Structure formats: C-alpha cells, structure tokens
C-alpha cells in the first residue's frame, strides 16, 4: 500500500533565545578597503587585526563623545554642530582649516553637494 508522505514535525524552541546580542560593527571589508587605500602596501593579518581593533575603539569613543555633546545640549539627535565640535576638539577643524575646506578636500562631489549649502539662480539655497 502507498502511504502519504507527511513532513516531519520541526521541534519548537522553548524559552528565550540562546544567542547573546552582539554589538554592531563596521564591516571588516570596509576597514580593509579604506586602510589598504591609504597604506598602498601589503599588510599582514596580525597587523590588520590590530587596525581593526583600533578602528572599533575609535568609533566607540567617537559615538560616545557625540552622544555626550548631544545630551549636554538637551537634544536627542546628533547635529552637524556636534560633529564640528568633536572635530574641533580633535584638532581637525581650526580657524585656519574650517569644516567646508575639509569637506571639499576629502569628500566626493555628491557628498559635498549634500553638506555644503550652494546658492543657485533664483535666489535659492540648496540644500
């Protein structure tokens, strides 16, 4: 006699998930791509692991500083002024090197258009 083939029942998990929540990280491929762009020579795996740890610590510190500046100002959203204050405290933005000059030097044109207001015909300012 022919029997009908029934799918096997899948056991259900009971209770909370066994996985621990992980912190978000910057993709290794992105760190490697940016680092190799600036280094322009081969890098050992051990050296790259150190670069990866340093970049992770840098971004953690960066985000906690931005969070502190924002909460000190009584806001819940990070604004451009917070980023500029952080860059000024790091010595990247000075009176001789304003933020707009850094943006023009290091970012592609499509990002420049988003970050630097531009006056166009008709007396309009974009963005």
From TrEMBL:
A Pfam match: CENP-T_C
Annotated localization: Chromosome; Nucleus
Alphabetized UniProt keyword annotations: Chromosome, Nucleus
One GO molecular-function entry: protein heterodimerization activity
Chain coiled-coil ranges: none
Record carries keyword Nucleus: yes
A single GO cellular-component term on record: nucleus
GO biological process: chromosome segregation; kinetochore assembly; mitotic cell cycle
Signal peptide (UniProt feature, chain positions): none
Family to which the UniProt record says this protein belongs: Belongs to the CENP-T/CNN1 family.
Identification of the protein by name: CENPT protein
Protein's gene: Cenpt
């Amino acid at each position: 006699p022919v029997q009908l083939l029934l799918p096997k029942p899948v056991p259900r998990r009971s209770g909370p998930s066994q996985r621990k929540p992980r912190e978000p990280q910057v993709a290794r491929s992105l760190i490697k791509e940016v680092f190799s762009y600036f280094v322009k020579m081969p890098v050992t795996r051990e050296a790259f692991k150190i670069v990866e740890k340093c970049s992770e610590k840098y971004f953690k510190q960066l985000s906690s500083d931005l969070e502190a500046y924002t909460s000190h100002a009584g806001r819940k959203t990070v604004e451009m002024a917070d980023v500029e204050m952080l860059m000024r405290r790091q010595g990247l933005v000075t009176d001789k090197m304003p933020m707009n000059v850094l943006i023009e030097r290091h970012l592609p044109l499509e990002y420049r258009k988003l970050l630097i207001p531009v006056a166009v015909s008709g007396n309009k300012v974009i963005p």
